[in-house]
Design brief:
The complex is a heterodimer of chains A (408) and B (332). Chain A has 408 residues and is mainly alpha-helical. Chain A has helices at 2-14, 17-38, 49-71, 80-93, 121-143, 148-168, 171-174, 194-198, 212-236, 238-248, 250-255, 260-286, 296-309, 314-343, 353-367, 376-383, 402-406; strands at 102-105, 116-119. A two-stranded parallel sheet of chain A has the order 1-2. The longest helix of chain A is centred in the C-terminal third of the chain and has 30 residues, at 314-343. The relative contact order of chain A is 0.15. Chain B is mainly α. Chain B has helices spanning 2-22, 24-55, 62-80, 89-119, 128-149, 175-197, 199-209, 211-216, 221-247, 254-269, 274-293, 304-318; strands spanning 154-155, 164-168, 171-174, 249-250. Chain B has a two-stranded antiparallel ribbon with strand order 1-4. The longest helix of chain B has 32 residues, at 24-55. Residues 328-332 of chain B have low confidence and may be disordered. Classes of the chains: A mainly alpha (408), B mainly alpha (332). Chains A and B meet through helix 6, helix 13 and helix 15 of A and helix 5, helix 8, helix 10 and helix 12 of B.
């Protein structure tokens, strides 16, 4: 065993650097792209395609939240607001909702004379991203100068206000039917490439295709890869390094010339952008935007993904998000049934889903605060203490604090 | 920015004056409802402020300690004392006082356990760590409530009559509102005495000012923090019982929502400031009651949550130190 392992390592180090760098990501992407073809041969614990789409969308949202929480260290407890904003942009711009207007632009699978605004779903995704970016900046500008925990509570406030506004903004509530109240807006137009691009083999309209779920799966995967790419590039960019500097020590970052407000606002805006796209895509996939989806617990659910995987670690967040969204969609029910079968008891595991997420959060923070797959830098930060550690621990005479060990 | 804040305040003032002129008796009835709600919020808000004052931590789990206290006292009233609206006044008084004591002790132990398990090890961690843990703790406590009490409302009989205790002019003060206020006032006075006049209170104030210096002069910091959490929890437990008496129903997930409102109150008054928490809670109680009870141009209960959180955001943006708080370098 030991010999084989050493030999494998030996072989690995001899491979050219580009291969070593890209082998794992390429393998994972290939596994992801081909998933619909081999899912039928996997045991039933693996998620079906419909659930996999949701998992990918949630992962995308978690990566967006990771930009705010993981990179910049700003606790956002109202991320669901961006999801809501994105979903409603999709609902406004690609549905029958606004009956008085008839506006078509690149929409597919819709009668030319149907009422409502019908813009191509691809364009709607972009518009949703930009719209939520603006929302993020508007929320961020007045609040981002607040200290971390106040910021958390303000974002939580927005996360509570926006769903209530959405629920109330109908004819009896504000005199104009903006969101159709608790019923939500449905149906939303399908994604698709239309007849011109359909001629070269791309699917014309997802909704009428026989492999609808697979098409949405690949689209979600493409969006996720785009998010991952942006996340990694942003992290290594000048802006990303400024975020990490702020996370580690705000005062020092400011002293080194990092413009705090602008940098923080950008992290908010970028996080919101991906949340908006993911929200809009999810609304298109579900063909509806419903206010019942936008509740506070969802923000914490996304936060739990980031914490489980490792704040700031792109790979970690992907793993954390896939695990938790699978648990949320079907894993808990399956595990509960399994335990129930073994022990003969009757456990309703999904009922306690949020207690379980809470327990995951607390356990991770206490035992492994850097997450399952820690980002290297963040782990150092957590292990060696932070700037506000006292130099000398008066409560235990003679004990040195973390700060003495780091020689700073 | 300040000009916008003042304009907003003036508009609220005009709105209240118009409502008062249109229906003075309705306005005053609403004031009493606001006072009642506000005193329940005050008990919860004090817990947030006590803990924030000492650890600079928003204890998100606090609202759920309140909910568990309320659920426990409802169960005690139903199953242990078995009183209903037909019971004699004596039996009801025994049940209320008994449940109050049990709920207070239970919530104290629960809250200091939360601190011991969740927050103590993270005292030197980055600030976000205990905050995130607090969110997780809140969910755990909620699900403990869900496990033991189920997803339905726990309902008790109305124990205190809604007959008017006395009337001022046309305005009736009902017994149930009066009892809530009468139960709250001694608790608030007791707390003030404890914090300002006892050795333990002095230790708490010292610890909140400077933990290291407090330890140097011989204060057991860990014990003081545990005591603070116990005290905050006790107030939440009492609030739980009072809430159940007033509204007769409680459910496992109500604590979070009420906790957030109470936290808003604490921030509004100036977090870390005890008198501020009470003032803020009363203001929030009034605003909520005005919004739901007044006739002229009031948005109604559909918008209550948005208004309360709107206030929270406005306070944090315009005056982060709150009504009574002092501006600290960290406050902004």
């Amino acid at each position: 065993m030991g010999g084989a392992r050493a030999a494998t390592r030996e072989w690995w180090t001899q491979q050219p650097a580009p291969f070593r760098r890209w082998a794992l990501p390429a393998g994972v992407i290939a596994l992801g792209v081909l998933y619909p073809f081999y899912v039928d041969f996997l045991p039933g614990t693996f998620p079906g395609i419909g659930i996999a789409v949701v998992m990918l969308v949630f992962t995308m949202m978690a990566l967006g939240l990771n930009i705010v929480v993981g990179y910049a260290g700003l606790l956002d407890l109202g991320y669901v607001a961006f999801y809501a904003a994105g979903a409603y942009v999709a609902a406004w711009l690609a549905s029958l909702h606004f009956e008085d207007i008839s506006f078509h632009f690149g929409s597919v699978g819709i009668d030319r004379d149907a009422p409502g605004i019908h813009i191509s779903v691809w364009l709607v995704l972009l518009i949703a991203g930009l719209f939520t970016t603006v929302v993020g900046i508007l929320i961020g500008l007045p609040t981002l100068r607040l200290r971390g925990d106040y910021l958390a509570i303000v974002t939580l406030g927005f996360g509570e206000i926006i769903p209530q506004v959405v629920r109330n903004a109908d004819e009896p509530g504000i005199g104009f039917d903006l969101t159709h109240g608790t019923f939500g807006i449905t149906p939303i137009d399908s994604a698709g490439f239309g007849s011109t691009l359909g001629a070269v083999g791309l699917p014309e309209v997802y909704r009428s295709a026989t492999n609808r779920a697979e098409l949405y799966y690949w689209t979600a995967l493409a969006l996720l890869l785009f998010t991952v790419f942006c996340s990694v590039r942003l992290r290594d960019s000048r802006l990303g390094r400024a975020w990490i500097a702020i996370r580690e020590d705000e005062t020092a970052a400011a002293a080194m010339g990092v413009p705090l407000m602008r940098t923080k606002t950008w992290s908010y805006a970028m996080g919101a952008f991906f949340g908006g796209i993911a929200g809009a895509f999810y609304a298109v996939f579900k063909s509806g935007a419903f206010p019942a989806d936008f509740y506070f617990q969802f923000s914490v659910f996304l936060l739990c993904m980031v914490i489980l995987g490792g704040m700031g670690s792109v790979w970690g967040v992907i793993v954390g998000a896939l695990i938790l969204s699978w648990l949320d969609r079907e894993g808990l029910a399956k595990i509960g049934d399994f335990i129930g079968d073994v022990t003969g008891s009757d456990i309703d595991a999904p009922r306690y889903a949020f207690g379980i997420y809470g327990a995951i959060i607390v356990t991770m923070m206490l035992i492994r605060p850097a997450g399952l797959i820690p980002e290297r830098r963040h782990r150092i930060e957590l292990e060696e203490g932070v700037h506000d550690t006292p130099l000398y621990d008066v409560q235990h005479e003679g004990t040195l604090t973390d700060r003495d060990r780091t020689n700073d | 920015m300040n000009a916008i804040g003042i304009v907003l305040l003036v508009l609220v003032g005009v709105w209240m004056v118009v409502n008062f002129v249109q229906g003075p008796s309705r306005f005053l009835t609403v004031v009493i409802i606001g006072l009642t709600n506000g005193s329940v919020y005050a008990l919860i808000a004090l817990g947030y402020t006590l803990v924030y004052g000492i650890l600079q931590l928003i204890n998100f789990a606090h609202g759920d300690v309140f909910a568990l206290g309320g659920l426990l006292s409802a169960t005690l009233i139903l199953d242990l004392f078995g009183v209903g609206s037909g019971s004699s006044t004596g039996a009801i008084a025994v049940a209320v006082v008994g449940s109050l004591l049990v709920a207070v002790v239970f919530a104290s132990i629960l809250n200091s356990t939360v601190e011991l398990v969740g927050y103590r090890r993270l005292r030197h961690a980055p600030r976000l760590a205990p905050l995130i843990t607090a969110v997780g703790m809140s969910f755990i406590l909620q699900n403990i409530g869900l496990y033991f009490w189920g997803p339905e409302y726990t309902v008790i009989d109305p124990l205190i009559s809604t007959e008017p205790a006395f009337t001022i002019g046309e305005v009736e003060v009902q017994w149930d509102n009066l009892v809530v206020i009468l139960l709250t006032i001694p608790l608030l006075l007791g707390l003030t005495w404890l914090v300002t006049s006892t050795k333990q209170g002095k230790a708490m104030r010292a610890t909140s000012q400077d933990m290291a210096a407090a330890a140097m002069v011989g204060i057991n910091v860990n014990r003081t923090i545990s005591f603070t959490f116990a005290l905050a929890g006790g107030l939440a437990g009492a609030a739980g019982l009072i809430y159940v008496l007033q509204f007769t129903t409680i459910r496992f997930d109500q604590g979070f929502q009420l906790g957030l409102i109470a936290f808003t109150a604490a921030v509004l008054g100036g977090i870390g400031n005890l008198a501020g928490a009470v003032v803020g809670a009363l203001v929030i109680g009034f605003i909520e009651a005005f919004n739901e009870g007044l006739s002229w141009l009031s948005p109604g209960s559909d918008w209550t949550r948005s208004i309360v959180f709107g206030i929270l955001i406005a306070v944090l943006v315009f005056r982060p130190e709150g009504i009574l708080g002092e501006r600290t370098p960290e406050g902004a």
